[in-house]
Amino acid sequence: MKRYPEVEDLTRAIYAGMREADLADITATISTQDGLVWIGTDPAEWWTGHDTVVEVFRAQLEAIGSFDIVDGDPIGYGDGDVAWVADQPAVRLPDGTEQPLRVTGVAHCTDGGWRFVQWHVSIGVPNADAWGTELPT
User: Fold this and answer.
1) Is the CB of residue 118 less than 8 Å from the CB of residue 41?
2) pTM, to two decimals
3) Domain 2-125 maps to which CATH number in 3.30.70.380, 3.10.105.10, 3.10.450.50, 3.40.50.1370?
């Protein structure tokens, strides 16, 4: 494994596209290959396929205008033409508060360019809320 700054930059690029509500910039980060999986924070947000993911982004951007993503510090590693990234950005809400997020992604390099083939965003909740009991952390 080695550090892949280009995948860290790809992560920053999708954040910028989301902040700027630029569907073309967002789409440029998403793979067109079979096997694409995109998972959001809502239980209903589980999509497969490039066209579906792009359509969801289009609809969500139309609904809210943009996602005010506060960059985290993405860390990407990989081997060959596959790399993964993890980050802890936040989304700034209209009232100015920030909701911490947890992001992981897998990217694949084809035709000289990196694109995400898997993306997962979650909002951490306390174990007591999720499981009904405290767990060792």
Assistant:
1) no
2) 0.93
3) 3.10.450.50
